[in-house]
Amino acid sequence: MDKQALINRLLELPSEIAAAEDIVLQEHMLVVSAKESLQQKEDSLLLGNVIDGKNAEIRAAQVRQFTEHEREALADAEMRLKNAVARLGKGKDELRALRAVADLLKGAA
After folding, report:
1. Which of 6, 35, 42, 86 has the largest CB neighbor count within 10 A?
2. How far is CA 104 from CA 11, 12, 98, 101, 107, in A?
3. Could you name the domain of life of the organism this protein comes from (predicted)?
4. Residue 6, class by beta-carbon neighbours within 10 Å (0-12 exposed, 13-18 middle, 19+ buried)?
């Protein structure tokens, strides 16, 4: 990477990081929404007398059985959030590394 490419990349990264931060916020909102959806479904099942197990373990298993779709949606949302956070971290790491290289080049000049 020559100096001009380094400069160009340093100028590009802040906007890429800002976009990645926006994606993290969006994904976080989707996780919160998925959690709320799961909770609403569980509440509906419990209050609607759909769950009739004799003990807590059976009732929990019934709830899991009836909320499979919502649990999968939550797991997917959490995975997308983790991936978005990882991409954001990589962008920040790259920016720090390129700044260090730029500082070294300043010292060598």
Report:
1. 42
2. 18, 20, 10, 5, 5
3. Bacteria
4. middle
pTM over 0.70: yes
The distance of Cα 75 from the centroid of its chain, to the nearest Å, equals 11
Report the CATH architecture of 3-108: Orthogonal Bundle (1.10)
Let me know if 34 is exposed, middle or buried by CB neighbors in 10 A (0-12, 13-18, 19+): buried
The string of pLDDT tens digits covering residues 5-36 is: 999 999 999 999 999 999 999 999 999 999 99
Asked if 42 and 63 count as a contact pair (C-beta separation under 8 A), the reply is yes
Neighbours of 27 (CB within 10 A): 19
